[in-house]
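hiii so um. not sure if this is the right channel but i have a protein structure encoded as tokens and i wanna go backwards to a sequence. like what aa goes where. can anyone help
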């Protein structure tokens, strides 16, 4: 008898694990539609979510499901017996990250593989985040300052359902137990009547990007970057190719995140329940679990826009549970480096991960130094407003910068192994390292000399200092 999964893999050219992954994300749509019709209480809803989520993981990884089951069991024991102890977070963090890294050690190969460690890295963040939230809640209660964000320790059924939520168990996005608790309690139901229509939009966007990725890889493939033909291209064309390749590669991630988000929307999990005044949002906005901001991504004019728009929920998680927790360092640069190192080791041991996040740090730091220099020069800003041709040239230059060099920075993340990404960087003459290292050292001083601060801005700074408010205060707070 023909295995339909293997038949689809053979027809599409994709691997069997990749086909299982895509099918599982798509399965979450009908599963979510059935969930919307359930009339039972919280127990029945949790049972349905837990059973379907476990089934999806078993379909993908078979007996390897025991890794995640063990993680849930350990998390439940920690939450139960260490719930009021200061040991809860360090024990949970050490166990979950340690287990994941041991899993990487035994399963890592020369390429990116879809194995049990892929959903496990999603699970690790979810359960560590839960430990942080429980610890914060108990601390607020002990201080006599409980608030609406305080959560109780979940029951075993709640924990299983939260961990194995069908739409997000394999590829994310991340969400808090507080969100899940409100969702199960029905707090979002009155705001999610239009969820099917919004989910359809996300589904169609996901399919579009998936098709573009599949078609694009036929013309800009990983294999070509390692080929002798690529070496024969001119240096300019090599960089153009890298930019196109990087864009198409990112579409692979965007497509699966959009499909997963659409499935989460079907359930009604994604309602934004910010307090009035916290942010501007529509009363039935359903983008609370969005992992990709398509509009920002497609209109990038700096590398920082990639950070703002790509893998949003993971970045938010790291900001809340790593970056902000490093404030005791009293230095934003060190906190930033710590957060990026966590992201690198969370991905695995391949050298490519560490180089990619180091490059991100270098590029973001360079942009933060350079961007204010352009913004504060009034003559340049007036010239841009008055000259449409100059604006067009700047637009083209920024597009070249964001697309080409994003592709350059993505090389280690995709090729992972040192000998592969080093070979490609050798072929393009290490141009990005030259640009970003020299840019961090020399670009800002040169621009300050060429584009001095406008007189009105400098005058305002002097007046502020004379009034007893040092103008550098904001900059110091920003960088430290």
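sure thing!! here u go:
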């Amino acid at each position: 008898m023909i295995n339909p999964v293997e038949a689809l893999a053979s027809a599409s050219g994709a691997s069997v694990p990749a086909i299982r992954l895509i099918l599982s994300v798509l399965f979450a749509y009908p599963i979510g539609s059935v969930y919307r019709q359930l009339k039972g209480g919280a127990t029945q809803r949790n049972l349905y979510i837990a059973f379907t989520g476990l089934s999806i993981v078993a379909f993908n990884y078979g007996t390897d499901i025991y890794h995640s089951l063990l993680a849930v069991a350990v998390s439940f024991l920690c939450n139960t017996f260490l719930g009021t102890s200061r040991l809860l977070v360090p024990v949970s963090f050490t166990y979950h990250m340690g287990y994941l890294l041991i899993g990487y050690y035994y399963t890592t190969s020369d390429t990116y593989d879809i194995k049990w460690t892929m959903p496990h890295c999603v699970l690790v963040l979810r359960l560590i985040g839960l430990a942080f939230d429980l610890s914060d809640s108990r601390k607020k209660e002990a201080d006599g300052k409980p608030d609406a964000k305080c959560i109780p320790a979940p029951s075993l059924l709640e924990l299983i359902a939260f961990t194995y939520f069908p739409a997000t168990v394999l590829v994310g996005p991340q969400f808090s137990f507080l969100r899940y608790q409100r969702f199960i309690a029905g707090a979002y139901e009155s705001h999610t009547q239009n969820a099917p229509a919004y989910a359809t939009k996300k589904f169609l966007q996901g399919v579009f990007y998936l098709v573009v990725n599949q078609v694009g890889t036929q013309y800009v493939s990983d294999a070509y970057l390692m080929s002798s033909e690529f070496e024969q291209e001119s240096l300019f064309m090599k960089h153009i190719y890298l930019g196109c390749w990087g864009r198409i590669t990112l579409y692979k991630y965007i497509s699966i995140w959009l499909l997963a988000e659409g499935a989460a929307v079907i359930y009604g999990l994604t309602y934004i329940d910010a307090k009035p005044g916290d942010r501007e949002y529509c009363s039935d906005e359903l983008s609370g679990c969005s992992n990709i901001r398509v509009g920002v991504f497609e209109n990038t004019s700096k590398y920082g826009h990639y950070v703002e728009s790509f893998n949003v929920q993971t970045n938010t998680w790291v900001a809340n549970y790593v970056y902000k927790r490093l404030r005791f360092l009293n230095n934003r640069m060190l906190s930033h480096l710590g957060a990026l190192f966590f992201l690198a080791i969370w991905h695995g041991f391949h050298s490519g991960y560490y180089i990619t996040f180091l490059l991100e740090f270098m590029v973001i730091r360079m942009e933060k130094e350079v961007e204010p220099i352009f913004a504060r020069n009034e003559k340049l800003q007036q010239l841009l407003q008055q000259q449409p041709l100059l604006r067009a040239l700047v637009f083209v230059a920024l597009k070249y910068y964001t697309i080409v060099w994003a592709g350059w920075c993505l090389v280690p993340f995709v090729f992972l192994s040192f000998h592969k990404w080093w070979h490609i960087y050798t072929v393009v003459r290490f141009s990005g390292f030259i640009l970003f290292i020299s840019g961090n050292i020399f670009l800002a001083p040169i621009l300050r000399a060429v584009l001095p601060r406008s007189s009105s801005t400098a005058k305002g700074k002097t007046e502020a200092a004379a009034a007893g408010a040092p103008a550098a205060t904001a900059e110091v707070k920003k960088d430290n």
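oh and The radius of gyration is 24 Å.
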